[in-house]
Amino acid sequence: MTATHTTEPAAGHARGGDDLLVIRGVSKRFGGLRALSNVNLTVEHGQIHAIIGPNGAGKSTLLNCMIGLIDADEGEVVFDGKPLKGLSPHNIMQRGIARVFQTPQVFPGMSLLDNVAIAALAKMNGQFRIDPFVYLSPTHPAVEEASEILRRLGLLKMAKYDAAHLSRGDKRRLELGICMACKPRLMLLDEPTAGMARHDTNRTIDLLREISATGITMIVIEHDMHVVFSLADVITCLAQGTPIAFGKPEEVRGNPKVREAYLGSSH
């Protein structure tokens, strides 16, 4: 899907009635620091929406507001027509939003299979745990689902390995598998290729494209412009907690406000 560039870039709105996520007037302060200021943003079903901006622009704070880790001072986040205010991060996940953090969040002392099976069970029964006294047979639905996800990720041969022994790129793929087991409608990715070599970065780009092709909507925060322009349908640029540009990649690439935000007014 595509979005039409608006006459008010700071609003960050995609036109049309097919919006999965709507952010209205979200503001957040930490003491005297204004992290977000009246942020408005819409994300359409099936879209890969990149959020870019220099360090300190408020990108991760915005994601934290979306999933309930931080309460916004003002404004609201609406997912599939329903406000998320007051819901715990776990309840928001159950609604269909999953997040991939900047540093891969996996259980290092557990096998790859169990890492993904935990998430599959959480989606099935609403509890993010595996009872240590219950043996999950290879035919348990959660195990079968986890095995299939690992196969799709190219990790099935390492299913019994502890996650601690994975490379950073493979840990990231495992974390994406954990998110996939949660069956999200919206996936939030905070710098999914940070610290990767270019080979692993390109593999991750291909994987994210494959996941997107299944119908999962994505919001991607990323500093690597190679990743952004390889993936994004539309881009929002934040600076000092405020959206300053919104549009298709080719529109944002040449936007003078974006160049100034990254490079400074002298450029």
TrEMBL record:
One of its GO terms (molecular function) is ATP binding. GO terms for cellular component: plasma membrane. Keywords: ATP-binding, Nucleotide-binding, Transport. The keyword Transmembrane helix does not apply. It holds the Pfam family BCA_ABC_TP_C. Residues 21-265 form the ABC transporter domain. One of its GO terms (biological process) is L-isoleucine import across plasma membrane. InterPro entries: AAA+_ATPase, ABC_AA/LPS_Transport, ABC_transporter-like_ATP-bd, BCA_ABC_TP_C, P-loop_NTPase. The keyword Metal-binding does not apply. This is Branched-chain amino acid ABC transporter, ATP-binding protein.
